[in-house]
Design goal:
Two copies of one chain form a homodimer. By secondary structure, the first copy, chain A, is of the alpha/beta class. The first copy, chain A, contains nine helices and 14 strands. The first copy, chain A, has a single domain (2-185), classed as Carbamate kinase.
Chain lengths: 258, 258
């Protein structure tokens, strides 16, 4: 089976012009077939402020109302996605931007209302990789923003980490998929304030222990749940760390295995 | 050769939710392979006003500065493009949104400064249809917004009529291309205030006569120049009129031939 690298980048790369540019130059040189997923960074909040659109929160969590969905669609699928694609082209990496609506690639349903109505937030129910495989097999890298659709004309905000893991699972029947989550730390840390305390390997058993010890908590929990969800669905390998893990053989990062 | 319909729609369709929705339902039912090009309508100006970004004009023509390019990228490639794609998916028409940067499909250069510096406005120099043909041959409709790139990482605003004609020319070596410009009139009119006075056929000879008579002037001139440019470069047929021309056999519209 061919290898496919699925790489997710977030705000720490997107929000810094130079960091993003450096990352895209290196990404372009990766030999294997590759797919990029990007989050939104701080630009959506900045645009909301400029437009005078209030950021609505309930129980500390952001609500995606109609205006907010418009803003994220404009920022994620428009400004960020097209500028990334244009930069990749400049680096001779042929790329095509995608939302989950394009090619009907990621279908979701509105997140069910329990305590909180999150508004236009979608939970993924189906991934179709046919169109993406057409491109990947022709040496073209899909570039995904964090939007999905419900196949009834409605767009949804969807977590970029989830998009990356669901795409990885979708490709896993035809490719040996390696999933890379780039973020602002060297990996999962034993001591959250010591960036050198990287836990190099985590498996199902040690994962449970790390949760019980309280080493893995807060934002790392959903991130690692995404990782194990991918591994349980035939994704070969999941790595978490700084973007160096992709480009430097001596870099330290966390590899997650079943 | 297979037939490909390239259809350009503008503000009179995009700016009205119901008109756009009706159009997309009918577009989805067209049998031939098809590609949609959309303009930006009034949304970009509305967003600029909301953001407090001044619309800059010189000699009555709009200048695309950095802020304006950001706005058009967000509105054209984000909000309008993704909502059109999502609606097409709801109508079981598989579609993928494109700017000229995606797939390196439309390369342009900054419009040379003569009397006016138009800013980030690109004149098309090259069209690559390989990626688009992959999709079209798999029954997927590309949906283009009016943005191009210079292959050095810079996006440009480019006239949507021009994008439609340049794509038509790019496809003409492999397809029998029919190019349709949908706008708010029944076609080229003998009498500009009488929508029933459609000139059914125009060719190179009658075109010159109509210009000399003053029948074709103002905004119609660049539109028809685009049409003849396409015909002179192997596009089979160019039609101008209301969207009915695509769906109703008894509708009147203007067909332009060499």
């Amino acid at each position: 089976m061919k290898t496919l690298k699925i790489i997710k980048i977030g705000g720490n790369i997107i929000d810094n012009k130079k960091t993003l540019s450096d990352f895209l130059i290196k990404f372009s040189k990766l030999d294997d077939p590759k797919l990029l997923v990007h989050g939104g960074g701080k630009l959506a909040t900045k645009l909301a402020n400029q437009m005078g659109v209030e950021v609505k929160m309930t129980s500390g969590r952001r609500i995606t109302d109609t205006d907010t969905l418009d803003i994220t669609t404009m920022v994620y699928a428009g400004k960020i996605n097209k500028n990334i694609v244009a930069q990749l082209q400049a680096n001779n990496c042929n790329a095509v931007g995608f939302s989950g609506a394009d090619g009907n690639t990621i279908v979701s349903v509105k997140r069910p209302v329990k305590d909180v109505d999150f508004g236009f937030v979608g939970d993924v129910i189906k991934v179709n990789t046919q169109v993406l495989q057409l491109l990947v097999n022709n040496n073209i890298s899909p570039v995904f923003c964090a939007l999905t659709h419900d196949k009834n004309g409605q767009l949804f905000n969807t977590n970029a980490d989830t998009i990356a893991s669901e795409l990885a699972i979708g490709f896993a029947k035809d490719y040996e998929v390696e999933l890379y989550y780039c973020f602002d730390k060297n990996g999962v840390l034993q001591d959250v304030v010591d960036d050198d305390s990287v836990i190099l390997n985590i498996n199902t058993t040690t994962y449970k222990e790390l949760i019980e010890q309280g080493t893995i908590a807060d934002g790392m929990l959903p991130k690692l749940n995404n990782c194990f969800h991918a591994l349980e669905n035939n994704v070969s390998k999941v790595c978490v760390g700084k973007q160096d893990m992709l480009f430097q053989s001596d870099s330290k990062f966390t590899t997650i295995e079943k």
